[in-house]
Structures are given as structure tokens and as C-alpha cells.
Known about the structure:
By secondary structure, the protein is α+β, with helices and mostly antiparallel strands. The protein has four helices and eleven strands, in the order E-E-E-E-E-H-E-E-H-H-H-E-E-E-E. The strands form two sheets. A six-stranded antiparallel beta sheet has the order 1-11-3-9-7-6. Strands 2, 4, 5, 8 and 10 form a five-stranded antiparallel beta sheet that branches. The longest helix has 15 residues, at 117-131. The two termini are 12 Å apart.
Amino acid sequence: MPPKIISARSGVFACLQAGQQVKITNPSGKQVVDLWAFAAPRGPSVIFGFKFLSMCHTRSSLMKLTLSLDDSLTDNERMPMLSLIEDTSGGAHDLLFAACDKYRYRQLGVEGYHQSCSDNLKAQLKEASLESNKLLSSVLYDAIGQASSTVEHWTPDPLNLFMNVPVKALEHGKGGKLALEAPACPQGGYVVLQAEQECVVIMSACPMDLSSIYNGHEAEFEVLTG
Length: 226
């Protein structure tokens, strides 16, 4: 498929079979893209009825706070879900920050409604649960329906692509502070993620306009055959 636009402040979803790849491009070099992925559970014992890309399980699996080529991002059952196979962005991605939501904007003094990655996730999962029945296996289609209901009350931590969050080194038990800096991605920089299992990927062009991570730009994505 040709590249599709992730409109500024909006979200999209893509259905991936195992071995397919999704290429996410940052045309301006200045836009953060929040990314989630959801899959069917391996058995009936899973609490949620679905699996999700999990940053805490990924960090403990990789034993680091950053991504490198060929790293696998894992789900909440500690199984590889996505792998980073290309990266021309410079490598600054965040595995720590929560998605922006109405509570964060309220903290920052926003009155009234403000678009958020959390709301984009909800909207795109709902759309996927309605429109993807012909694109997914029946078990994953059912799992996406359950995920859509669950994220109305809970948002998994995303993979924040192109988000530049330097971590100060720990020395003698001190340090470890985080900073928020403008994305360091060159114009047209991109990443390619390969699906290690059938999944639905949600992407949100972050609408955070109260810090240096936002510049009001669109992004692009393209599903590759692998």
C-alpha cells in the first residue's frame, strides 16, 4: 500500500499479519507518534481477553531504556510483538512516558476539551473493532472488541516514537532525572517495525502543544509485506 497520512492531532490503525512491517515516517522530523499494538491471547487465562504491547515488559526484557536495531518489543505475556528492523531517525524514542490525556491537560491549566493520544487510541480501537472483521482472524477480532471496551477506562503506556527524553546518568544513587527535548529526528526520518504476531497497531500524531515535543505536523505510515 502507498504511504497514508496520520493527520496532525489524529490517529490511525493498521492490521498486520506476522512478518508484515509498518513504516512510520516523520516528514517534518518534529512530530512525536504514540504507538500501541494489540493481539489475541494465547489462552483463556488472560485477565483482559487480549494482549497489548507493554513498555514495562519491554524494558525488563531489554534491560535498558532505549531501542536499538533488532530489538524486540514484548507484550504483557513477555512474547515478542514488534521488532525494530530499520531506523533512520537518530534513535531517540521514549519507553517511559504515559500518553497525554485529559488529566494531563487539566494539570497544565487547559480548560475545556483538548485532543489527546489517549482519546485517539480509544477512537481508533473502536473503529478497528467495527471495520476490521474481514482483515483479522476471528480470535483477534474478538480481542480487539474487548480491548476497545477496556481502554475506555485504562490506557497502556505507548511506545513514543521520535520522542526525545534524555535520562541523566545515575551517580552514587543520584541522578536519573528525565528531560523533555525537541525531537532529534531529521526530516523524513523513519522507523520500520516488523510484526512478530498478528496484531492491530494504533498510531497517534501527538497533539501535545504545551511542550517542545509538538509542532502540529502530520506523519505517515505504510504497511510493507515483509
